[in-house]
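Figure caption, in words: inputs first, then the predicted bound structure.
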Amino acid sequence: MSATVPRDLRGRDRPDRAMRALALVGGLYARIGRSPGRDPRPVDRSLLLTVVDRAVVADGVVALRLAAPDARPLPRWQPGCHVDLHLPSGLRRAYSLTGAPDDRRSYRIAVRLVPGGTGSAQVHALAPGAPVVVRGPRNAFPFVPLPRTLFVAGGIGITPIAPMVRAAERRGVDWHLLYTGRDRAAMPFLDALGDPRRTTVRTDAEEGPPTAADLVRHAPPGGAVYACGPPPMLDAIRAAFPATGAAALHTERFSPPPVVGGRPFRLVLRRSGAVLDVPADRSALDVLRAVRPDVAYSCRQGFCGTCRVGEHLVCVDRPAGDVLAIDL
Ligand code: FES
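Bound structure (FE2/S2 (inorganic) cluster present):
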């Protein structure tokens, strides 16, 4: 026995008007759903920019200004944002934006030449006119103004801090900046730090390296501390912070934090079948790059996404159990 499917809601041969309208709307939605513009596919947020200005702003530090070749406005950013530069060799590196957020026509970065560092050497080699692929901006160090704030910058750590200082000044924040470095010649943007009465410049050459107490001397009770610089400086601030009475500490480091309290695990490369032992104090990325130097990375701190393999950020991900399996 075969069942006949009625052509309308009431079983009539001729579809009624309500049914026709329903079919029309349904068809329309189906077409929209299938239209190429609505397909769920990853959005490529890469920008092809050009170096429009290059300047040496301190010993070993170059500032680059990047703009779109057609001068189109660039995506907005806030103090603390960084961009990822895709360098001609295939390396990717994250650099803080250090210009003015309301300048929609260019991004400004400043990069210190790291002895033996391939990424910084390649950035220093970029000349005006050079094309650069940029991804971002993204913010892993957001600035949330509190009425009172201490900023601490160590050397090139001034790059994310400088836009924060300008934002604090505009918003009437009671701020203080401690800017430390080896010597004045090596410290960029010394002449563009805002109100000198609110700024302390301290160099190792003149006063010796700062102690932890020196670093947090101006921390405001109930206020915030924002710090960016080398790991020993940040470690000292972190250790001294609880005694300051300040309410919040925000830091950004140049290099990955050491793995503390980790457990050893096995890293399984599903496609090749290789199994690698990851010690307790190393990351999967460290171990992986010894056998797969082509695996890209940038921040090594879990915020840029460059090292993603499938669902894993191999610079920071560790398994709940003994094995981390990745699609390589
Ligand atoms: S290298 Fe940036 S998230 Fe892993």
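The chain has a mean pLDDT of 85.
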